[in-house]
Amino acid sequence: MPQETTQQYLLSIYQPDGEAPPPEVLDPIMANLQALNEEMQAKGAWVFAVGLHPPSTATVLRAKDDDVLMTDGPFAEGKEHIGGFTVVQAADLDEALEWGRRLATVLSPLSVEVRPIVSE
Amino acid sequence: MIEEIFRAEYGRAVSVLTRVLGDLDLAEEAVQDAFTTAAEQWPVKGVPPAPAGWIITTARNRAIDKLRRESKGHEKLAQAALLQHEPEEEVGDVPDDRLRLIFTCCHPALALPAQVALTLKLLGGLTTGEIARAFLVPEPTMAQRIVRAKGKIRAARIPYRVPRDADLPERLKAVLAVVYLIFNEGYLDKVGLEAEAIRLGRVLAQLMPDEPEVWGLLALMLLVASRREARLRDGEIVLLADQDRSRWDADLIAEGQDIVRRCLRWNRPGPYQIQAAINAVHSDPPTDWHQVVALYDQLLAVTPSPVVALHRAVAVAETDGPEKALREVDALDLDRYHLFHAVRAELLTRLGQDPTAALEAALDRAEHPAERALLRGRLAAADQQDHADEHDQHDHDPQPGRDTTGL
C-alpha cells in the first residue's frame, strides 16, 4: 500500500532463563551484534537498542485503589524472558523482517519477535 | 451473468482498488457496493460493454463518495481530493495488481489458515460464511481470523507488492501451497473449492507464465479434477483401477497432459510438475508403472518424505510385486496415517495374508466418510473371504499432497 513515511518496529530478543553463556561463547556473539548495530546505523534503520539485566533484577508495580503494590521479580515467570531489544525503522514489514532475520542469525538460537510500534 | 462476472472479476477489482485506495477494507467495501449497484442496474439498463471496467470505475467513484461523505477531518477530505485527481489510467488493470494481492494474502508472516482465508475472501470473493463452512469452522471464528489478518497487514505494513527476484522462489512456494491446500480441501466434496483453486491456478499461470511450477500445479489440479466424477460412487471412494473411465473429463485430461508435455520440454522440474507427470501417466491407461516408479524416484529426490515413499511403494507393487512393496512400506514411519495401513492391507491381501488388522488400523485413523465407507467395505470382504483368489490391482488415487491439509 502506498506509504511515504517509515514505520518503527520493536525487535524483542527472547532468551531462556538461567546463566548467560561463558565469555568464550558470548564474546564473538556480542561482537557480531555490535557489527549489526553499526550496519543498522549506517543504513539509517537503527533507532534504539538495549540489553537488559536478568529478570531476577526486575520489580513489578501495580496500582490498586490508592496504593501501588510492589512485587519482587519479573511480571511473568516463564521459561524465557526478554533479554534486550532493538527498535528499527523500515519502509514495511519485509524490510523489518530482514533486520529481524539478521538479528536472529547473530543471536542464534534465540528467538526474535518483530512487532510494529504505534505511530502518532 | 452478474454471478459469473463476480467470480471472474472480483479479485481483479479488489486488487486494483487496493492499490488506488491503499486499504483492503475500503477496497472490498467499494467493490461490493459496485456489484450491488450492478445487480440493481444491469437487469434494467443492460450489461455495460466492458463490465469489468464498469465495476472498477464504479467502485472507485463509490469509494470517493464515501470518503467525502464520512470525512470528519481534513485528512480524509484530502485523500478523497487526491483520489479524484489521479490520472484515469491509474484505475486501469495494472497486470500485476492481482499478483500483489496474492503475495500479500500469502505472506509468510500470516499463519497458513489466515493466508487461505484471505485468498478465498479477497481473490475469490467468497463470503466469510462460505469460507467458514468449507473449513468446518464456526463463522465468528473465521470472521475473527480474517479481521485479525487484515489488521496485521495494516498495522505491521505487510507490503502490497510482488517480491523481489531473490525472494520470489520461497514466496511463490507459499502461494502455490495455499492454492493446493484449497484444492485438496475440495478433493472429495466441496466442488466449489476445487473449482476456485483451479481458477486461482489459471490466474497465476496467466500472470507468471515463466514459472514452471505454477504450470505444474495447474496441470496437477486439472488431472486430479478430471477424475472427480469417477472418484466417488454412492459416497464411497472408487480406486483408480476400478474407475469408470468414460466418466473421466477428457478436456481436463487433454489440457493437463498438454501442460505436462510443455513442462517436460522446459526441463526445470519441481514437485508439482512431477506430481502432474505422475497423474498424466495415470490418465493414459494402461498405466506405465515403470515410468510412475521413476517419477516417484525423482519426486523423492526433491521432496524426501515418507508419504511420497508410500505412494512410490504402491507403484513398486506393480513393477516388482507386492512382497518387495510390503518390505518398503513396513520400513516407513507412518503409523498415524490411514493410507499407510490401507496400502499394507492391500499388499497383504495380494500376498494371501489376512488384512483384517491393517484394515481396522486404517479405519481407526481415516476421517472422511467416503474413505471410511471404502475401508468398511474392504473389511466386510476380508471377513467373509478366504482370500485365495484376489488378483485385482488396487491402487489409490495418486495425490501425495493429500495429507498436507493441516487446517
What does this structure look like?
The complex is a heterodimer of chains A (120) and B (407). Chain A is of the alpha+beta class and 120 residues long. Chain A has a single domain, classed as Alpha-Beta Plaits (2-Layer Sandwich), CATH 3.30.70.1060. Chain A has a four-stranded antiparallel beta sheet, with helices on one face. In chain A, strands 3-4 form a two-stranded antiparallel ribbon. Chain A is flat. In chain B, helix 1 runs antiparallel to helix 2, helix 3 packs antiparallel against helix 4 and helix 9 packs antiparallel against helix 10. Chain B has three domains: 90 residues, Rna Polymerase Sigma Factor, Chain: A, CATH 1.10.1740; 115 residues, no CATH class; 80 residues, no CATH class. In chain B, strands 1-2 form a two-stranded antiparallel sheet. Chains A and B meet through helix 2 and strand 6 of A and loops of B. Chain A: InterPro entries: Dimeric_a/b-barrel, YCII. Chain A: This is YCII-related domain-containing protein. Chain A: Belongs to the YciI family.
Topology:
The complex is a heterodimer of chains A (about 120) and B (about 400).
Chain A: E1 7-16, H1 23-42, E2 46-51, E3 59-64, E4 67-72, E5 80-90, H2 93-106, E6 111-116
Helix pairs in contact in A: 1-2
Chain B: H1 2-21, H2 24-45, H3 51-70, H4 74-84, H5 97-105, H6 112-123, H7 128-134, H8 139-155, H9 168-185, H10 191-207, H11 212-225, H12 228-231, E1 232-233, E2 236-237, H13 250-266, H14 271-282, H15 289-302, H16 306-320, H17 322-330, H18 338-350, H19 356-365, H20 369-384
Antiparallel strand pairs in B: 1-2
Helix pairs in contact in B: 1-2, 1-3, 1-5, 2-3, 3-4, 5-6, 6-8, 6-9, 7-8, 9-10, 10-11, 11-13, 11-14, 13-14, 14-15, 15-16, 16-17, 17-18, 18-19, 19-20
Number of domains of chain A: 1
Which structural category fits the helices and strands of chain A? alpha+beta
Assembly state (oligomeric): heterodimer
End-to-end separation of chain A:
19 Å
Number of helices of chain B: 20
Q: How does the helix and strand content of chain B classify structurally?
A: mainly alpha
CATH topology of chain A: Alpha-Beta Plaits
How many structurally independent domains of chain B? 3
The number of helical segments of chain A is 2
Main β-sheet description of chain B: 2 strands, antiparallel
Fraction of residues in β-strands of chain B:
under 5%
